[in-house]
Inverse folding.
């Protein structure tokens, strides 16, 4: 059987799925419903609290890990689904493009968090 | 007979044929909703950076107080929650756990590796960053 890297990318998919499932719903709830406000003083107080938490090195490491792994989860799943929907003839380049985008997202997350 | 046999492919709508296939495709497409939110999150986190982080983020929190952003968050939340539910449900198949000769029952595994940590982490996140 030809050598395949599927197991490696499946591991990232699996880890990313767990990370995304555990952390992202609460974060969506926060940025979408619990944090937004139309009161400027409230907004500043909430922003300072969030900034205090995210600026901590441990938060940055955890967030970068969660976001990076979640990107690879999406890349793997989207790549396979696209093949299942008929793009199998271009499967190789498609998979490479998906994983490269995930890598770009991971690097972007690290850069953004570094600047906080 | 010459040439290789290629099984005829029913086309990209193959998954509409059975309810199980539709549910499978919906599950897989939750990854798109997750990807959309991840990009949104990076944009939000970028507002936290730079010298005037808190002020810029405070302005963002006021911008997010709008129907458009709320609907977008609701849609991605539904997708990501469905991802979590279906992902936890698949755990016993992907990772069977045995204690000696006995297999740990599916629902117990789903709760201990899925819903329990999910509740703990979610409470921690909300407690840390929300008012």
């Amino acid at each position: 059987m030809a050598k395949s890297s599927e197991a490696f990318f499946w591991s990232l998919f699996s880890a990313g799925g767990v990370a995304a499932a555990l952390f992202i719903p609460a974060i969506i709830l926060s940025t979408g419903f619990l944090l937004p406000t139309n009161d400027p003083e409230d907004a500043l107080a909430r922003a300072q609290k969030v900034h205090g938490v995210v600026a901590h090195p441990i938060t940055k490491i955890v967030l970068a890990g969660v976001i990076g792994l979640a990107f690879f989860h999406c890349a793997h799943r989207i790549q396979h689904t696209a093949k299942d929907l008929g793009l199998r003839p271009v499967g190789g380049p498609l998979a490479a493009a998906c994983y490269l985008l995930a890598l770009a997202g991971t690097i972007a997350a690290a850069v953004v968090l570094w600047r906080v | 007979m010459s040439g290789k046999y290629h099984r005829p492919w029913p086309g990209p709508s193959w998954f509409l044929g059975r309810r199980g296939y539709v549910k499978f495709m919906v599950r897989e497409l939750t990854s798109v909703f997750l990807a959309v939110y991840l990009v949104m999150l990076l944009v939000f986190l970028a507002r936290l950076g730079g010298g005037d982080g808190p002020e810029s983020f405070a302005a963002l929190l006021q911008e997010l107080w709008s129907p458009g952003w709320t609907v977008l968050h609701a849609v991605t939340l539904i997708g990501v929650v469905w991802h979590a539910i279906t992902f936890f449900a698949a755990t016993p198949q992907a990772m069977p756990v045995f204690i000696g000769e006995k297999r740990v029952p599916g629902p117990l595994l789903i709760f201990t590796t899925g819903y329990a940590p999910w509740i703990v982490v979610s409470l921690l996140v909300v407690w840390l960053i929300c008012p």
